[in-house]
Design brief:
The chain is an alpha+beta fold. It is built from four helices and three strands.
């Protein structure tokens, strides 16, 4: 993967895009730190389809549901609360 400073990626975007399509993902750096990646759309779709389900999808799916075990109330001992002195 080639790293492009953000100024070069902006100034030479067509070349940046063509390099991505021909050679694969390209990294963009800002102030010397890697900050983003440009990937071909096919790779993006592949990554999205192989990603784990989101929390929202997991909670809405029937597979994620099960019996919730809730302990009976009243079994725990409560501690005494000491009154404040004024």
């Amino acid at each position: 993967m080639h790293t492009w400073p953000v100024q070069d990626a902006k100034a030479r975007f067509s070349e940046f895009l063509e390099t991505c399509l021909h050679d694969g993902p390209q990294i963009v750096s800002k102030r010397g730190r890697e900050t983003a990646v440009l990937v071909p759309i096919e790779l993006w779709h592949q990554l999205q389809s192989s990603a784990k389900p989101s929390l929202k999808n997991l909670l809405l799916s029937d597979d994620a549901r099960g019996d919730l075990i809730v302990p009976e109330r009243g079994q725990a001992r409560r501690r005494e609360v000491m009154p404040f002195e004024v």
